[in-house]
């Protein structure tokens, strides 16, 4: 299993918090690897075709993550950053399960 960067995931009780960076209005809905900001923050780069208006991009982010991680859409929720490019997604799954799912994506780490 690939070693993911510190700060990308953290446990929250029985759930997991995942840091994401969203690019709306992209050509496809996809996970595009790990993003490292100039301040050292690490997040999962998620590209979505939806516009960043009225929650459309947020819904597309949770759907894209659910599909990629092979989890139900209902297991995803935006925990913080609803109007920001940087979001924290609450996933109703263990950190171990999310690590396994992310590792299977063969991300550019």
Report what the structure shows:
- With 109 residues, this protein is of the alpha+beta class.
- The chain has one domain: YggU-like (Conserved Hypothetical Protein Mth637, Chain: A).
- It contains two helices and six strands, in the order ββββαββα.
- It is globular, with a radius of gyration of 13 Å.
- It starts with 8 loop residues before the first strand and ends in a 6-residue tail after the last helix.
- The model has no long low-confidence stretch (mean pLDDT 91).
Shape: globular
Radius of gyration: 13 Å
For the sheet with most strands, the description reads: 6 strands, mixed
Indicate the CATH class: Alpha Beta
Low-confidence stretches: none
Report how far apart the termini are.
12 Å
Per CATH, the superfamily is YggU-like
H and E order:
EEEEHEEH
**What portion of residues belong to β-strands?**
25-35%
Q: DSSP helix count?
A: 2
CATH architecture assignment name: 2-Layer Sandwich
What characteristics describe this protein?
6 strands, 2 helices, alpha+beta, 109 residues, Conserved Hypothetical Protein Mth637, Chain: A
Brief rundown of the structure:
With 109 residues, this protein is of the alpha+beta class.
Helix-strand blueprint:
Layout (H helix, E strand, L loop, with lengths): L8 E4 L2 E9 L6 E7 L5 E6 L8 H14 L6 E5 L5 E6 L3 H9 L6
Parallel strand pairs: 2-4
Antiparallel strand pairs: 1-2, 2-6, 3-4, 5-6
């Amino acid at each position: 299993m690939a070693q993911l960067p510190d700060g990308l995931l953290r446990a929250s009780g029985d759930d997991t918090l995942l840091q994401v960076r969203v690019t709306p209005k992209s050509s496809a809905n996809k996970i595009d690897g790990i993003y490292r900001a100039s301040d050292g923050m690490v997040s999962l780069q998620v590209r979505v075709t939806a516009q960043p208006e009225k929650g459309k991009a947020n819904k597309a982010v949770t759907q894209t993550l659910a599909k990629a991680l092979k989890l139900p859409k209902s297991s995803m929720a935006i925990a913080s950053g609803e109007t920001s490019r940087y979001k924290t997604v609450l996933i109703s799954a263990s950190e171990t399960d999310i690590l396994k799912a992310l590792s299977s994506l063969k991300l550019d780490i």
